Amino acid sequence: MIKIGNINLPEFPLLLAPMEDVSDPPFRAVCKEHGADLMFTEFISTEGLIRDALKSRQKLDIFEEERPVGIQIFGGDEEAMAISAGIVETVNPDILDINYGCPVKKVVCKGAGAAVLKDIDLMIRLTKAVIKSTSIPVTVKTRLGWDFDSINIIEVAERLQDIGVQALSIHGRTRSQLYKGEADWSWIAKVKNNPRMHIPIFGNGDVDSPEKALEYKNKYGIDGIMIGRAAIGYPWFFREVKHFFATGEHLAPPTFEERLDLIKQHLHASIKWKGPKLGIFEMRRHYANYLKGIPNIKPLRTQLVTLNSAEEIEEALACFVLE
Fold first, then answer.
1. SS3 128
2. Which of 31, 102, 109, 319 is catalytic?
3. Domain 2-247, what fold?
Protein backbone atom coordinates (compact mmCIF):
# COMPACT_ATOMS: atom_id res chain seq x y z
CA MET A 1 0.00 0.00 0.00
CA ILE A 2 1.17 3.53 -0.84
CA LYS A 3 0.50 6.31 1.68
CA ILE A 4 0.42 10.06 1.12
CA GLY A 5 -0.41 11.67 4.43
CA ASN A 6 -3.49 9.80 5.65
CA ILE A 7 -4.45 8.70 2.13
CA ASN A 8 -4.15 5.01 1.34
CA LEU A 9 -3.58 4.09 -2.29
CA PRO A 10 -3.22 0.63 -3.87
CA GLU A 11 0.19 -1.03 -3.96
CA PHE A 12 0.88 0.34 -7.45
CA PRO A 13 -1.56 3.18 -8.17
CA LEU A 14 -2.42 4.64 -11.56
CA LEU A 15 -2.76 8.41 -11.43
CA LEU A 16 -4.60 10.70 -13.83
CA ALA A 17 -2.33 13.58 -14.77
CA PRO A 18 -3.48 17.18 -14.40
CA MET A 19 -4.11 18.36 -17.98
CA GLU A 20 -5.25 21.85 -18.90
CA ASP A 21 -8.71 21.89 -20.52
CA VAL A 22 -8.97 18.11 -20.07
CA SER A 23 -8.88 17.05 -16.40
CA ASP A 24 -12.17 18.66 -15.39
CA PRO A 25 -14.79 16.94 -13.17
CA PRO A 26 -16.73 15.27 -16.04
CA PHE A 27 -13.55 13.73 -17.44
CA ARG A 28 -12.24 12.78 -14.02
CA ALA A 29 -15.55 11.01 -13.32
CA VAL A 30 -15.22 8.67 -16.29
CA CYS A 31 -11.56 8.00 -15.48
CA LYS A 32 -12.43 7.17 -11.87
CA GLU A 33 -15.15 4.80 -13.07
CA HIS A 34 -12.62 2.98 -15.24
CA GLY A 35 -9.84 2.54 -12.72
CA ALA A 36 -7.92 5.76 -11.96
CA ASP A 37 -6.72 5.57 -8.34
CA LEU A 38 -5.77 9.22 -7.77
CA MET A 39 -6.66 12.22 -9.89
CA PHE A 40 -5.67 15.84 -10.09
CA THR A 41 -7.52 18.93 -11.25
CA GLU A 42 -6.39 21.08 -14.12
CA PHE A 43 -3.62 23.34 -12.85
CA ILE A 44 -4.83 26.57 -11.27
CA SER A 45 -3.08 29.93 -11.39
CA THR A 46 -2.43 31.42 -7.96
CA GLU A 47 -2.93 34.86 -9.50
CA GLY A 48 -6.33 33.80 -10.81
CA LEU A 49 -7.40 32.40 -7.45
CA ILE A 50 -6.42 35.53 -5.57
CA ARG A 51 -8.18 37.91 -7.94
CA ASP A 52 -11.23 35.61 -7.87
CA ALA A 53 -11.07 34.80 -11.58
CA LEU A 54 -14.15 32.74 -12.41
CA LYS A 55 -12.34 30.08 -14.44
CA SER A 56 -9.73 29.55 -11.72
CA ARG A 57 -12.37 29.31 -8.99
CA GLN A 58 -14.43 26.84 -11.02
CA LYS A 59 -11.40 24.55 -11.24
CA LEU A 60 -11.64 24.11 -7.46
CA ASP A 61 -14.82 22.05 -7.90
CA ILE A 62 -14.29 18.53 -6.59
CA PHE A 63 -16.85 15.87 -5.72
CA GLU A 64 -17.00 13.15 -3.09
CA GLU A 65 -17.23 10.30 -5.60
CA GLU A 66 -13.88 11.16 -7.18
CA ARG A 67 -11.80 11.04 -3.99
CA PRO A 68 -8.94 10.81 -3.45
CA VAL A 69 -8.35 13.90 -5.56
CA GLY A 70 -5.67 16.56 -5.57
CA ILE A 71 -5.89 20.22 -6.55
CA GLN A 72 -2.86 21.51 -8.43
CA ILE A 73 -1.66 25.11 -8.32
CA PHE A 74 1.15 27.01 -10.02
CA GLY A 75 2.81 30.35 -9.42
CA GLY A 76 6.10 32.12 -8.87
CA ASP A 77 5.43 34.33 -5.84
CA GLU A 78 5.73 33.09 -2.26
CA GLU A 79 2.93 35.21 -0.82
CA ALA A 80 0.55 34.31 -3.64
CA MET A 81 1.34 30.62 -3.22
CA ALA A 82 0.67 30.83 0.52
CA ILE A 83 -2.64 32.68 0.08
CA SER A 84 -3.71 30.23 -2.63
CA ALA A 85 -2.94 27.27 -0.39
CA GLY A 86 -5.34 28.72 2.16
CA ILE A 87 -8.03 29.16 -0.49
CA VAL A 88 -7.55 25.58 -1.72
CA GLU A 89 -7.85 24.25 1.81
CA THR A 90 -11.40 25.64 2.09
CA VAL A 91 -12.69 23.05 -0.42
CA ASN A 92 -10.95 20.19 1.40
CA PRO A 93 -9.08 18.25 -1.30
CA ASP A 94 -7.11 15.19 -0.29
CA ILE A 95 -3.85 16.59 -1.71
CA LEU A 96 -2.46 19.97 -2.71
CA ASP A 97 -0.09 19.51 -5.65
CA ILE A 98 2.36 22.12 -6.95
CA ASN A 99 3.21 22.29 -10.64
CA TYR A 100 6.89 22.84 -11.37
CA GLY A 101 6.72 21.05 -14.69
CA CYS A 102 4.43 22.87 -17.12
CA PRO A 103 6.58 23.85 -20.13
CA VAL A 104 4.17 26.14 -21.97
CA LYS A 105 5.35 29.67 -22.68
CA LYS A 106 2.47 31.54 -21.03
CA VAL A 107 3.25 29.82 -17.72
CA VAL A 108 7.04 29.88 -17.95
CA CYS A 109 7.05 33.58 -18.85
CA LYS A 110 5.42 34.29 -15.47
CA GLY A 111 8.28 32.55 -13.69
CA ALA A 112 6.07 29.58 -12.83
CA GLY A 113 5.76 25.93 -13.86
CA ALA A 114 9.00 24.56 -15.31
CA ALA A 115 10.65 28.00 -15.08
CA VAL A 116 11.22 27.33 -11.38
CA LEU A 117 13.59 24.50 -12.33
CA LYS A 118 16.16 27.18 -13.10
CA ASP A 119 16.15 28.33 -9.47
CA ILE A 120 15.95 25.51 -6.94
CA ASP A 121 16.22 27.91 -4.01
CA LEU A 122 13.12 29.68 -5.25
CA MET A 123 11.37 26.33 -5.66
CA ILE A 124 12.12 25.51 -2.04
CA ARG A 125 10.87 28.91 -0.83
CA LEU A 126 7.65 28.58 -2.81
CA THR A 127 7.06 25.04 -1.56
CA LYS A 128 7.76 25.98 2.05
CA ALA A 129 5.24 28.81 1.76
CA VAL A 130 2.59 26.34 0.67
CA ILE A 131 3.43 23.71 3.29
CA LYS A 132 3.31 26.30 6.09
CA SER A 133 -0.10 27.52 4.91
CA THR A 134 -2.01 24.25 4.83
CA SER A 135 -2.55 21.04 6.77
CA ILE A 136 -3.28 19.15 3.53
CA PRO A 137 -0.51 16.82 2.25
CA VAL A 138 1.60 18.71 -0.29
CA THR A 139 3.00 16.93 -3.35
CA VAL A 140 4.91 18.16 -6.41
CA LYS A 141 4.90 17.41 -10.13
CA THR A 142 8.04 18.41 -12.01
CA ARG A 143 10.45 17.58 -14.83
CA LEU A 144 14.07 16.42 -15.00
CA GLY A 145 15.43 19.94 -15.34
CA TRP A 146 15.35 22.98 -17.59
CA ASP A 147 17.46 21.39 -20.35
CA PHE A 148 19.92 18.54 -20.88
CA ASP A 149 22.78 20.61 -19.44
CA SER A 150 20.95 21.34 -16.21
CA ILE A 151 19.22 18.12 -15.17
CA ASN A 152 18.87 18.58 -11.42
CA ILE A 153 16.06 16.24 -10.46
CA ILE A 154 18.07 14.30 -7.85
CA GLU A 155 18.88 17.47 -5.89
CA VAL A 156 15.33 18.77 -6.41
CA ALA A 157 13.81 15.54 -5.08
CA GLU A 158 16.04 15.44 -2.00
CA ARG A 159 15.43 19.06 -1.09
CA LEU A 160 11.67 18.84 -1.61
CA GLN A 161 11.49 15.74 0.56
CA ASP A 162 13.58 17.45 3.24
CA ILE A 163 11.08 20.29 3.63
CA GLY A 164 8.03 18.04 3.84
CA VAL A 165 6.77 17.23 0.35
CA GLN A 166 4.98 13.90 0.68
CA ALA A 167 5.14 12.52 -2.88
CA LEU A 168 6.76 13.45 -6.17
CA SER A 169 5.56 12.90 -9.74
CA ILE A 170 8.33 13.23 -12.35
CA HIS A 171 7.82 13.72 -16.07
CA GLY A 172 10.82 12.19 -17.81
CA ARG A 173 11.60 15.18 -20.04
CA THR A 174 13.32 18.52 -19.60
CA ARG A 175 11.46 21.75 -20.19
CA SER A 176 13.38 22.35 -23.42
CA GLN A 177 11.98 19.11 -24.85
CA LEU A 178 8.38 20.22 -24.30
CA TYR A 179 6.56 17.01 -25.33
CA LYS A 180 8.99 16.01 -28.06
CA GLY A 181 11.49 13.16 -28.11
CA GLU A 182 11.33 10.31 -25.65
CA ALA A 183 10.85 10.56 -21.92
CA ASP A 184 13.96 9.36 -20.08
CA TRP A 185 12.79 7.25 -17.17
CA SER A 186 16.32 6.33 -16.11
CA TRP A 187 16.46 9.63 -14.20
CA ILE A 188 13.17 8.82 -12.49
CA ALA A 189 14.68 5.49 -11.45
CA LYS A 190 17.77 7.28 -10.07
CA VAL A 191 15.50 9.35 -7.84
CA LYS A 192 13.53 6.31 -6.70
CA ASN A 193 16.67 4.28 -6.02
CA ASN A 194 18.43 7.10 -4.17
CA PRO A 195 18.86 5.69 -0.63
CA ARG A 196 17.98 9.12 0.78
CA MET A 197 14.50 9.02 -0.71
CA HIS A 198 11.56 7.51 1.16
CA ILE A 199 8.50 9.33 -0.25
CA PRO A 200 6.48 7.81 -3.13
CA ILE A 201 7.91 8.51 -6.59
CA PHE A 202 5.53 8.38 -9.54
CA GLY A 203 6.70 8.28 -13.16
CA ASN A 204 5.08 10.12 -16.05
CA GLY A 205 5.68 10.32 -19.78
CA ASP A 206 5.00 8.17 -22.88
CA VAL A 207 3.11 5.34 -21.17
CA ASP A 208 0.70 4.54 -23.98
CA SER A 209 0.15 0.77 -23.73
CA PRO A 210 -0.36 -1.85 -21.02
CA GLU A 211 2.90 -3.51 -22.11
CA LYS A 212 4.87 -0.32 -21.61
CA ALA A 213 3.22 0.28 -18.24
CA LEU A 214 4.30 -3.17 -17.04
CA GLU A 215 7.78 -2.79 -18.51
CA TYR A 216 8.32 0.56 -16.78
CA LYS A 217 6.88 -0.75 -13.50
CA ASN A 218 9.36 -3.63 -13.49
CA LYS A 219 12.34 -1.85 -15.01
CA TYR A 220 12.34 1.40 -13.07
CA GLY A 221 10.95 0.36 -9.69
CA ILE A 222 8.71 3.40 -9.31
CA ASP A 223 5.75 3.47 -6.90
CA GLY A 224 3.08 4.19 -9.51
CA ILE A 225 2.48 5.64 -12.95
CA MET A 226 0.82 8.91 -13.89
CA ILE A 227 -1.19 8.66 -17.11
CA GLY A 228 -1.81 11.69 -19.29
CA ARG A 229 -2.38 11.71 -23.02
CA ALA A 230 -3.15 7.98 -23.26
CA ALA A 231 -6.33 8.54 -21.22
CA ILE A 232 -7.72 11.42 -23.29
CA GLY A 233 -10.86 10.06 -24.91
CA TYR A 234 -9.89 6.60 -23.69
CA PRO A 235 -10.50 6.28 -19.93
CA TRP A 236 -10.64 2.51 -20.43
CA PHE A 237 -6.82 2.66 -20.45
CA PHE A 238 -6.69 2.43 -16.65
CA ARG A 239 -8.67 -0.80 -16.44
CA GLU A 240 -6.76 -2.27 -19.39
CA VAL A 241 -3.43 -1.63 -17.65
CA LYS A 242 -4.67 -3.16 -14.40
CA HIS A 243 -6.00 -6.22 -16.23
CA PHE A 244 -2.67 -6.67 -18.00
CA PHE A 245 -0.80 -6.38 -14.70
CA ALA A 246 -3.00 -9.07 -13.17
CA THR A 247 -3.21 -11.53 -16.06
CA GLY A 248 -0.58 -10.70 -18.67
CA GLU A 249 -3.41 -10.62 -21.18
CA HIS A 250 -5.19 -7.82 -22.99
CA LEU A 251 -8.69 -6.87 -21.96
CA ALA A 252 -11.07 -6.69 -24.89
CA PRO A 253 -11.32 -3.09 -26.11
CA PRO A 254 -14.59 -1.22 -25.63
CA THR A 255 -17.23 -1.93 -28.23
CA PHE A 256 -18.58 0.78 -30.47
CA GLU A 257 -21.74 0.85 -28.36
CA GLU A 258 -19.68 1.27 -25.16
CA ARG A 259 -17.88 4.21 -26.72
CA LEU A 260 -21.15 5.88 -27.67
CA ASP A 261 -22.61 5.28 -24.21
CA LEU A 262 -19.59 6.88 -22.55
CA ILE A 263 -19.74 9.86 -24.91
CA LYS A 264 -23.34 10.42 -23.78
CA GLN A 265 -22.42 10.01 -20.12
CA HIS A 266 -19.51 12.45 -20.46
CA LEU A 267 -21.65 14.90 -22.44
CA HIS A 268 -24.41 15.06 -19.83
CA ALA A 269 -21.89 15.47 -17.01
CA SER A 270 -20.21 18.26 -18.97
CA ILE A 271 -23.54 20.05 -19.48
CA LYS A 272 -24.47 19.63 -15.82
CA TRP A 273 -21.18 21.15 -14.67
CA LYS A 274 -20.65 23.90 -17.27
CA GLY A 275 -24.13 24.58 -18.61
CA PRO A 276 -25.52 23.64 -22.05
CA LYS A 277 -23.59 26.04 -24.25
CA LEU A 278 -20.10 25.60 -22.79
CA GLY A 279 -20.63 21.95 -21.89
CA ILE A 280 -21.48 21.03 -25.47
CA PHE A 281 -18.74 23.22 -26.93
CA GLU A 282 -15.99 21.80 -24.72
CA MET A 283 -17.06 18.20 -25.41
CA ARG A 284 -16.04 18.72 -29.03
CA ARG A 285 -12.37 18.28 -28.14
CA HIS A 286 -13.09 14.74 -26.91
CA TYR A 287 -15.01 13.19 -29.81
CA ALA A 288 -12.04 12.46 -32.06
CA ASN A 289 -10.30 10.56 -29.27
CA TYR A 290 -13.40 8.63 -28.19
CA LEU A 291 -13.91 7.48 -31.77
CA LYS A 292 -10.26 7.03 -32.76
CA GLY A 293 -9.44 3.95 -34.77
CA ILE A 294 -13.01 3.15 -35.78
CA PRO A 295 -13.30 2.71 -39.55
CA ASN A 296 -15.56 5.02 -41.56
CA ILE A 297 -16.26 7.19 -38.53
CA LYS A 298 -15.40 10.58 -40.04
CA PRO A 299 -19.00 11.52 -40.98
CA LEU A 300 -20.15 11.08 -37.38
CA ARG A 301 -17.14 12.90 -35.97
CA THR A 302 -17.73 15.82 -38.34
CA GLN A 303 -21.40 15.95 -37.42
CA LEU A 304 -20.83 15.91 -33.67
CA VAL A 305 -18.66 19.05 -33.69
CA THR A 306 -21.39 21.05 -35.44
CA LEU A 307 -24.42 20.16 -33.29
CA ASN A 308 -25.57 22.54 -30.57
CA SER A 309 -27.97 20.57 -28.38
CA ALA A 310 -27.78 17.36 -26.37
CA GLU A 311 -30.88 16.07 -28.16
CA GLU A 312 -29.29 16.53 -31.59
CA ILE A 313 -26.09 14.83 -30.45
CA GLU A 314 -27.95 11.88 -28.93
CA GLU A 315 -29.98 11.50 -32.11
CA ALA A 316 -26.83 11.53 -34.23
CA LEU A 317 -25.27 8.85 -32.02
CA ALA A 318 -28.42 6.72 -32.11
CA CYS A 319 -28.87 6.96 -35.87
CA PHE A 320 -25.30 6.35 -36.96
CA VAL A 321 -24.64 2.92 -38.45
CA LEU A 322 -21.15 1.57 -39.00
CA GLU A 323 -20.64 0.45 -42.60
1. helix
2. 102
3. TIM Barrel (3.20.20)
